[in-house]
Amino acid sequence: MCIKEGEEVLDGMENLSLCNSDHHEDNKSWPLNNTQMGDCPNSSTDTTNFTIGLDITTDSLTLESICESNAIIDSKENQMENFLPSIRSGEWSDDGGRDFMEDTHVCIADLGKKFGCNILEGEAISFFGVFDGHGGKAAANFARDNLPRVIVEDADFPLKLETVVTRSFMQIDAAFEKKCCIQSTLSSGTTALTAMIYGRSLLVANAGDCRAVLSRLGVPIELSKDHRPDCLKEKERIESLGGFVDGEGYLNGELGVTRALGDWHIAGMKKSSEQGGPLSAEPELKLITLTKEDEFLIIGSDGIWEVFTSENGIDFARRRLQEHNDVKQCCREIVEEAKNRNASDNLTVVIVCFQSNLPQNVVVPRSCGVRRSISSQGFQHLKSCLSEDWILQ
């Protein structure tokens, strides 16, 4: 939830024909250099969610050579290794501290098979997404129901996947505006974070404050940045487009995020011009090559990250996976732990594992001054100890 106040609306959405197959942009094909993410500070049961067949082994090395940023750079040895991700996933969600649910998510093992796309010649592209709605759940459900299909139906899919994903986010945003013009009660907004896996390539696209964190031998690697008004680059972009951040840290006094789909009903947030308005639907992308050191990816709505740091989330998930190696159960335990930590928002988490084996027991180096968290059980035990007056008189 990232709006000061909102109202739940109906979510009856039908699929729309949103794609324009005639694209003439002079774009490079995937693999490409990834879009750099801004240097922004991070903060922290919907029965209609989609989960489709998620236990596959990818045998494609089509996109093995990918240029990455210096933040996540693989050694030449890792780039050349014969690593094949074995993909399995789990998910869990809960109303959390809210009276109603506005989060939703989608998990699709094979986009091509799901939407009858034959150009992949048997190679699977997996798709995972978390959508955190605000002011109602219509925008989140609309994005969940339509974004995967729009991506597949784009004329440049899958060879220009970065371009396709960015364009699809924008098309969904524009299509939802038209939908709300016809049915104003659907007016709402949503953040969106998606992850696509093709061979050894992982592409993360983010608009908003959901977060994706990769475990690389236990070391947390953030693959997205929270788009919040306290991000300096986002604030500069907002002000250049006529927007402002109020004293409480809200965009135009209304929203706690600077990028989202929908919200066309809020005056001054979006414009149909090429330049756009202060609230942008354009995602930031992160593209990496998976290696044998990459264990799993956590995708969570902001309610999860309000009570987990990225490091704490990775540590918690690794311990649970080492205990039972059940991805769905691990997701449930993360959500339950977030509730025990008094999370105030809706809670959704998706975990995608790249290995079939348990995470290795490794000593993870920690820098000085790292913020640490205590589990709810430990906190309750500490409280009971203090209440029993164990302090020496």
UniProtKB/TrEMBL annotation:
The answer to whether the entry has keyword Ribonucleoprotein is no
What Pfam families is this protein classified in?
Answer: PP2C (PF00481)
Q: Which GO terms describe its molecular function?
A: metal ion binding; protein serine/threonine phosphatase activity
Question: The PPM-type phosphatase domain covers which part of the protein?
Answer: 88-354
E.C. number: 3.1.3.16
Name of protein: protein-serine/threonine phosphatase
GO CC field: cytoplasm; nucleus
What does the record give as cofactor?
Mn(2+); Mg(2+)
Tell me what reaction this enzyme catalyses.
O-phospho-L-threonyl-[protein] + H2O = L-threonyl-[protein] + phosphate; O-phospho-L-seryl-[protein] + H2O = L-seryl-[protein] + phosphate
Q: Keywords in UniProt for this one?
A: Hydrolase, Magnesium, Manganese, Metal-binding, Protein phosphatase
Q: Which superkingdom is the protein from?
A: Eukaryota
* Family label: Belongs to the PP2C family.
SUPFAM superfamilies, A to Z: PP2C-like
